[in-house]
Design brief:
The complex is a heterodimer of chains A (225) and B (227). Chain A has 225 residues and is mainly α. Chain A has one domain. In chain A, helix 2 packs antiparallel against helix 3, helix 2 packs parallel to helix 6 and helix 4 runs antiparallel to helix 5. The longest helix of chain A is centred in the C-terminal third of the chain and has 44 residues. Helices cover 84% and strands 0% of the residues of chain B. Chain B has one domain. Chain B starts with a helix and ends with a helix. Chain B is globular and about 55 Å long. With 227 residues, chain B is mainly alpha-helical. In chain B, 47% of the residues are buried. Chain B has eight helices and no strands. In chain B, helix 1 crosses helix 5, helix 2 runs parallel beside helix 5 and helix 5 crosses helix 6. The chains are: A mainly alpha (225), B mainly alpha (227). At the A-B interface, helix 4 and helix 5 of A face helix 6, helix 7 and helix 8 of B.
Chain lengths: 225, 227
């Protein structure tokens, strides 16, 4: 069943991506002020949304683990966090590339950049924490608690850093910025494509976690014998 | 409810008494704080004007570093002789245990901060008392946020590898909003500005941070200690 979901989702994602790339490069013209580089937005913005979808999934899975002690939830929490972290990195790197061209600098302490970096550090801490705990139940419990703390921190981080500083272009979906409807449609369709890629990665990572747990269990049985 | 607060105070009292008898965390933490204060003066060699601009950031970094030493000891102190198991097994609610320990850490860290302020004033030639009470308010709010989050993470990291490294690694990123608010507000107040406008926004942020994370800590501490 899961195999089939993985194959179908990757297929749909590949087709969508090809179609979106075609539209991006053949159909949409360069942006009036930014030229060709604006197309990075079609990956930059969906990567951010996908990473937050991942972190939110990890939060829900962590709460479920703490409530039910089912290790499948813990596996989902790790998988979603790792994939979320990867997309957060994509978001940061594409943002820096864009900033180098448009602003002339790789990095600035603008509130959205800084917030994303703090989120990245928080969830990197989650993975470091998991490495430091040997016992599986304890690892899952402590990591789950940290995930809840981290997610509760995210809105406060965003709010506080916003108070601190601002230099980013207004977000095009909520807020003051404006965008051509054709570009908006490509943006949303590409969000779907990137989200599907994220889903496939989570499912593959989930399978690895479950296999790992099975191997650990077998090893323990072998030791007992 | 009264039983809860009595238990909280008993735990806080126990921790403070143990600390005052051994002085292991407070001595280390205070000397560390003074060393960092000294190092900053070499690192920046600031004029009076520059010092005023960086004062909040400088002081809170010192407090965060010194605080990590106190927080690291908070639960680790209970490990010898299996005191932690006894505490968790005692007929005291785990929330009271956390609150008591946070309170003790709060008192210790505040004591260190009180000692740092005059030293800072003398070494950096800054008159910091212009807005004394508002500054104390910011100090108390920032320190409470740091100690309550830090105490939960002290419990969370007590049994894991590399405990001393993991605590700051996990707590500092979480503390960024509170530290930033405390730094901005402190800088402004040390420079003599009134408690109004932007500073008030930072104070509100600190209050919100404290309320949210105290609540979260009290809810999650059972899972941290018992699993």
């Amino acid at each position: 069943m899961r195999e089939r979901v993985i194959i179908i989702c990757s297929g749909v994602a590949a087709i969508l991506l090809a179609w979106n790339l075609g539209r991006m490069f053949l159909f949409l013209g360069d942006e009036a002020q930014q030229g060709a580089i604006y197309r990075i937005m079609f990956f930059h913005v969906p990567a951010a949304w996908t990473s937050f979808t991942g972190f939110f999934t990890a939060l829900v899975a962590s709460i479920l683990f703490l409530a039910r002690k089912n290790f499948r939830n813990d596996a989902l929490a790790v998988a979603a966090t790792e994939v979320g972290l990867a997309f957060a990195a994509v978001n940061l790197v594409t943002g820096m590339l864009w900033g180098r061209i448009i602003w002339g600098i790789w990095w600035t302490w603008d509130w959205r950049l800084t917030s994303m970096l703090v989120c990245f550090l928080l969830y990197a801490g989650y993975l470091v924490l998991r490495r430091a705990v040997e016992e599986p139940t304890q690892r899952a419990t402590l990591a789950g608690i940290f995930s809840i703390f981290a997610f509760a921190d995210v809105p406060i981080v965003f709010f506080s850093i916003k108070w601190w500083r601002t230099q980013h272009p207004q977000p095009v979906v909520w807020g003051g910025g404006s965008i051509d409807p054709a570009m908006k449609s490509v943006l949303y369709w590409n969000f779907l494509a990137v989200l599907l890629i994220g889903l496939v990665l989570v499912l593959i990572r989930l399978r690895q976690e479950e296999t790992q747990r099975e191997i650990d269990a077998l090893r323990r049985t072998a030791h007992a014998l | 409810m009264t039983a809860f607060f009595r238990q909280t105070l008993v735990i806080a009292h126990k921790d403070l008494r143990a600390e005052l008898r051994t002085k292991e965390a407070i001595n280390a933490s205070l000397s560390f704080a003074l060393v960092i204060l000294l190092l900053f003066s070499f690192a920046f060699d600031p004029t009076v004007e520059q010092t005023r601009e960086i004062s909040g950031g400088l002081l809170w970094i010192v407090f965060a570093f010194a605080g990590a030493l106190i927080l690291n000891r908070s639960f680790a102190r209970e490990l010898p002789n299996d005191c932690l198991d006894a505490l968790v097994g005692a007929p005291v609610s785990r929330a009271a245990l956390l609150l008591g320990k946070s309170l003790a850490n709060f008192v210790l860290l505040m004591a260190i901060e009180f000692m740092c302020f005059p030293v800072f004033g003398i070494f950096y030639n800054v008159r910091w008392t212009a807005q004394f009470w508002p500054l104390m308010l910011v100090l108390a709010l920032g320190t409470w946020g740091f100690t309550v989050v830090g105490t939960v993470f002290s419990a969370l990291t007590v049994n894991i590898r590399l405990r001393e490294v993991m605590l700051p690694l996990l707590v500092y990123p979480l503390m960024i909003p509170a530290l930033m608010a405390a730094m901005q507000a402190s800088t402004h107040l040390i420079a003599g500005g009134p408690l109004a406008g932007d500073v008030l926004v930072w104070v509100r942020l600190l209050v919100a941070f404290d309320v949210i994370f105290t609540a979260l800590a009290l809810v999650l501490i059972d899972a941290v200690l018992v699993g």
